[in-house]
């Protein structure tokens, strides 16, 4: 084999377009420029001098992933009870779902505590009073690359917090 011809078609098209008419067989690598979320079909013909192989290698069809999601525009964490924090975050274009990550003073290692779709809020109800927690949100889609929000921290107060919270709510109602 002296050289190769690489052809491609896009989506449901029936026509192949020649991308590289004479790629030296000694350098069989080709890097294509593609669009996100697009299906491409490739085939390769081998040449021996001026004679082309009657059948191509392939076809091989691939679909490119979408662009990675943007990170959430903002993140907030608010303690609403001695063992509960509500985490909310802003829009993240191209995100399909979100992973909420948490760490605390003892572990200092972020772990995913919940994955959510279709909402931008999470209530964490498995916490210890008198503890500081840090949260961040990971935006995800079908692209293996993810993006993360900034990190926020919140300190949960103890039982006095619960009594104060009830008093504030009562005061607001009347």
Structural notes for this entry:
With 174 residues, this protein is mainly beta. The protein contains one helix and 13 strands; from the N terminus they run βββββββββββββα. The strands form three sheets. Strands 1, 2, 3, 4 and 5 form a five-stranded antiparallel beta sheet that branches. Strand 11 and strand 12 form a beta hairpin.
Characterize this entry briefly.
17% of the residues are buried. It contains one helix and 13 strands.
Helicity level: under 10%
Q: Would you report the number of β strands?
A: 13
Largest sheet: 5 strands, antiparallel
Amount of beta strand: over 45%
User: How far is it from the N-terminal to the C-terminal residue, by CA?
Assistant: 88 Å
Counting helices, strands and paired strands, the structural category is mainly beta
- Unreliable stretches (pLDDT < 50, length at least 5) are 162-174
Shape descriptor reads rod-shaped
Keywords:
174 residues; single chain; 9% helix; five-stranded antiparallel beta sheet
Topology:
Blueprint (H helix, E strand, L loop, with lengths): L2 E8 L6 E8 L14 E10 L2 E2 L4 E7 L11 E7 L2 E6 L7 E8 L6 E7 L3 E4 L6 E10 L6 E2 L3 E5 L2 H15 L1
Antiparallel strand pairs: 1-2, 1-3, 3-4, 3-5, 6-7, 7-10, 8-9, 8-11, 11-12, 11-13
